[in-house]
Amino acid sequence: MVHLNDTIRRVTDRIRERSRDLRNQYLKKMHEAASKGPHRSNVSCGNLAHAAAACSLADKKALAKGDGPNIGIVTSYNDMLSAHQPLGAYPDIIKQTLNEMGATAQIAGGVPAMCDGVTQGQPGMDLSLFSRDVIAMATAVSLSHNVFDGALMLGVCDKIVPGLFIGAARFGHLPILFLPAGPMTSGISNDEKARVRQQYAKGEIGREELLAAESASYHSAGTCTFYGTANSNQMMMEVMGLHLPGSAFVNAGTVLRDKIVEETARRVGKTTALGAEFIPFYEVIDERSIVNAIIGLHATGGSTNHLIHLVAMARSAGILVNWDDFAELSTEIPLLARVYPNGSADVNQFHAAGGLAFIIRELIDAGLLHDDVMTVMGEGLRPYSTVPSLTDDMLSWENIETESKNAEILRPVAEPFADTGGLQVLDGNIGRGVIKISAVKPENRYIEAPAIVFSSQQEIIDRFKAGELNKDFVAVVPFQGPKANGMPELHKLTPPLSVLQDKGFKVALVTDGRMSGASGKVPAAIHVVPEALNGGSIGKIKDGDIVRLDAEKGDLRVLGDEDIDLRETRKHDLSNDRRGSGRELFAGFRSLAGDAEAGAMVFGWDLED
Predict the structure, then answer these.
(1) What letter would DSSP give residue 107?
(2) CA 467 to CA 479: how far, in whole Å?
(3) To bridge 289 with a disulfide, which of 218, 240, 390, 605 should be the other Cys (CB 3.0-4.6 Å)?
């Protein structure tokens, strides 16, 4: 048996001890719910009649008899999001597959699914982070009918999977599997897409050329192919054992994908309390699986958004993690993948090179993952080092090949791209924040330069176009936190700041907002806490203050003024950030939101609950 890395063991033990009371409370609730048996036996005949009224005659008889499982489907299907459009066909496949084994399925409910790619730089982006908690609540409403023996979560993208996870955790006495749609096929290269965006930012091409390039990149059904938050979601679901092995990056619209949908339905049907292999969600998700998810983020250079989402997801299952846990694990976990924006490859090329199965096998063999976990497949993570394939139209799994098929994309632990993980925690008199350094060249990871404070990302874009930013500077964009305006992503800043960096200027971004799961080559200190609206020092920085950002040492500070927190907070008008596009409806969310390090949640679970 491989010896588990001492740092991983120590961090896991620390999380377990920190979480003891809250986790025990959570487990007590789950055990109580599981002990009640199938919920259909506890509802009235009127309740059950309502639940079955729209079913086929055969399904009505099966539900009335009650000896076969009934699976609730929670879906984020809509046909505007490319990643979610394929989900529309899944319920019929799931129902037919379960009917063949004497089980039933019902669409328990739908959850909203917004696309950050559509809302970038638009008022709707201010609803993006809060949509996660709306999804969590919608998931709870969907499953609250209490007539289900298991559940399937159909979702892919940024806030959708974390929201489904948080809602699912409150029904953790059920077996729950996650089912993605898979990525679209590759379009134009990511390098070409970035080049065109920078050309547009410099005014060298017009909107027509930019739209043509974007449409050649985002061109069909399936998940976007860069390694942002959506694909980081799928990595985490896999390494936490909530998928069938190898589910994450099989393309949408393929026979293999349809077979995975069928087998996922069979698996949830086999693991309910009505059968011999009961595997509830609360046994799959524990301190070890959450640590595995953090390790997966480091090893792949995953999305910075998960330093918010994973904290919230863990807490929903009674587990308390913080950024110090991320930082300590980062010192031990090598970077094994180069996928855009950390490299030029997309997720299809990553998958073809060996993908997650290769990484999971490498990490297990090096003692860098908890292998002794429960998954939806049973005991142990080792099955997730296999890949699905079809033989005579039958689904099977094969061991991943020993060597990477492309060392420019995927490497073994013995020859990593970097010795430490792709995410770093920053600390200093400005506050605490995070940075994704896997895409930032070493020479750009340290900067000391005068601050320029901006009221919005649009101000940066306007001043860039006016030629006012051709110099070394640190762009400070405060009042972008959860309480201020919902913590939007500031992804539109990537092209202009990249252009300035390419010109030879030392530039960086410091903000209490988010950047993106696609954070790129410009050093960006994001998620800074406390946020400006809560009196954080980021709201007290002045133009001309010398700011130091040392990504490798984790230092973020204003030089020469260690008492910056004693300054007055600058004035900032938020009225235009809180009206229009439905933002008025989220005033309560803004008032309740916790800070980024606590998961930016609008609800939580305290010991007195």
Answers:
(1) E
(2) 25
(3) 240
Q: Where does a domain end: 399, 434, 464?
A: 399
Distance CA 487, CA 175 (A): 33
Token pair of 605 as six digits: 């679970």
**Owning domain of residue 454:** 423-598
User: Is the CB of residue 71 less than 8 Å from the CB of residue 265?
Assistant: yes
Q: Are 107 and 75 in contact (CB under 8 A)?
A: yes
In a domain, 411, yes or no: no
* DSSP at 67: -
- Write down the mean pLDDT value for the chain: 91
| C-alpha span between 101 and 91 (Å, rounded) | 16
| 387, 497: one domain | no
230-282 pLDDT, tens digit per residue, is: 999 999 999 999 999 999 999 999 999 999 999 999 999 999 999 899 999 99
Q: Output the domain CATH number for residue 469.
A: 3.50.30.80
Tokens 């994704």 — which residue?
436
Write out pLDDT tens, residues 192-210. 877 888 888 788 888 888 8
User: Which two three-digit tokens encode residue 75?
Assistant: 């879906």
The mean-pLDDT minimum among 113-117, 270-274, 353-357 falls in 113-117
Phi, psi of 337 (to 5 degrees): -130, 145
Query: 556, 510 in Cβ contact below 8 A?
Result: yes
| Residue 180 within a domain | yes
Judge contact between 436 and 519, C-beta under 8 A: yes
**369-399 in b/e burial notation, b at 16+ Cβ within 10 A?**
bbbebbbbbeeebbbbbbbbeeeeeebebee
Does 337 map to a domain? yes
The whole-number average pLDDT for the span 351-363 is: 97
